[in-house]
């Protein structure tokens, strides 16, 4: 018996003017898998995320989610189907308290649909979600203005906004970058918990050591192309990957 | 010795977003007077004024509504340079309904507000995707285009306009109707903008990417904001049609686009109370300056510049800050 993958990407390409940001990338992703995507700066990782979430329109290729082509749907509809993403550059609503930042995702038609109309008190739900990602309730961090929070909390907020949408597939674009080792160590359990809940996750990362500990599988990108795909222990052994990372080309 | 300004919130026991633990009459008065005082002034002032200034008050309310309408759009990230579109659309809707079909003003007013808002929204629908100045340019041009259309096709009376509209029964009904609507719009939409719905609108202004990323169709929300703002402006236009008993091409004039923006900016952009306050100052000012004659626009312009330079945050925010905080100079510790 073969299971249809949750997400099937085939020959996905995008060029910006002369730059081929993503070129002919194909891969399948099974439900419950945690896929890491790595590659040097400018190799097209963020663009790949943008193509899946349809913030950027593909030049060619297909994205099939739960057996259904989604590459021509608008971005907001893709979110409603259960694909949530975070942004590499976090940009919260700086003048609002952290928990008020959660109101917009909680206002989402997807959330309303899942809970059948009324959510009850959104503020209370927001506070619960923030506590889950490590906003200490006792210290009232969630009530602080987002503009006054350190990067670590902003990244957690970004993660909480994605979790609020109760997605089936979560795409995290460099969640760990800019964080200290201790901060990363405290976020890893949250991601592991999401996996236990059966979520499928794609993580774009530069922090290879931490990523390799939790990823089932790694895809390596270079100059817009997928140059390797396999279990974390194997990909780094491949010559092409070594070259891409050591810059011997 | 260096000094710096220190600001301290006035001593209310608990002041959070909407929970007040109020202990005395004084505190209750302190908190509630900014709300009922303007309403009280709106109610009593017409009784003290002569017919000329009563008419000016109608103008104040009409421009107040246009400024509120402008501010709702601005808070959603749509800078309108064409409030005259909404005003004129409402004016013509009411005019046509009354002139051709003899419908009573009490029915044309709400109907024209809804219809004017809807038609304006439909006209702007194709350019909803434009951002910033591109959207603004379209709003600036649309009313000017409509004037030419009326002139060329001679519809709705062409350059002559439509006259002989039914007036409202009395000046008192006019005044209390328009100020009732203004107060309802001010407090109602203020509440709307602080609700979750309003948060989404402000989110679109701030960072529409992040709103889309929540599975929210930003265009649907922009349409709703446009319709709301359009209806508010259209009501103002419809009202003026019945006051003047006439509707013609001047309803699409630039005045109705520019003055509301000036009011919102002077009063304090980003707050509907500021927009209303701005109209309450600028409209009477323009009347007072009428006596000067030719140089009126120069004085008016100079006044605007001085105001914006002196109080860039806007009059309302300035007054609000002064009301809620003590200020004192303290020495900077070395
Ligand atoms: N909107 C855009 N317009 C033009 N070029 C773009 C755009 N977005 C990305 N690019 C280009 O596409 C290429 C891939 O960029 P992308 O952001 O996807 O890389 P990345 O792998 O995410 O890099 P990083 O590790 O630095 O985040 C780069 O050369 C970049 O300059
Ligand atoms: Mg990137």
Describe the protein:
The complex is a heterodimer of chains A (249) and B (334). Chain A has a domain at 90-161. In chain A, helix 6 (122-132) crosses helix 7 (151-164). In chain A, 45% of the residues are buried. Chain A has helices spanning 45-52, 75-80, 98-101, 103-106, 109-115, 122-132, 151-164, 181-196, 208-214, 232-235, 239-246; strands spanning 7-16, 19-29, 34-38, 60-65, 68-69, 83-85, 169-173, 200-204, 217-222, 225-230. Chain A is α/β, with parallel strands linked by helices and 249 residues long. Chain B has 334 residues and is mainly alpha-helical. Chain B has a single domain, classed as Orthogonal Bundle (ABC transporter involved in vitamin B12 uptake, BtuC), CATH 1.10.3470. In chain B, helix 3 crosses helix 9 and helix 6 packs across helix 7. Chain B starts with a strand and ends with a strand. At the A-B interface, helix 2 and helix 4 of A face helix 7 of B. Bound molecules: adenosine-5'-triphosphate and magnesium ion (MG). Magnesium ion (MG) binds next to helix 1 of chain A.
Question: Which helices and strands appear, and what pairs or packs with what?
Answer:
The complex is a heterodimer of chains A (249) and B (334).
Chain A: E1 7-16, E2 19-29, E3 34-38, H1 45-52, E4 60-65, E5 68-69, H2 75-80, E6 83-85, H3 98-101, H4 103-106, H5 109-115, H6 122-132, H7 151-164, E7 169-173, H8 181-196, E8 200-204, H9 208-214, E9 217-222, E10 225-230, H10 232-235, H11 239-246
Parallel strand pairs in A: 3-8, 3-9, 6-7, 7-8
Antiparallel strand pairs in A: 1-2, 1-4, 4-5, 9-10
Chain B: E1 3-9, E2 14-15, E3 20-21, H1 25-48, H2 51-75, H3 83-101, H4 105-124, H5 132-153, E4 162-163, H6 171-194, H7 196-212, H8 218-244, E5 246-247, H9 255-267, H10 272-289, H11 296-310, H12 315-324, E6 325-331
Antiparallel strand pairs in B: 1-6, 2-3, 4-5
Helix pairs in contact in B: 1-6, 2-6, 2-8, 2-9, 2-10, 3-4, 3-5, 3-8, 3-9, 4-8, 6-7, 7-8, 9-10
The structure holds adenosine-5'-triphosphate and magnesium ion.
The site of magnesium ion has 3 residues of chain A, from helix 1.
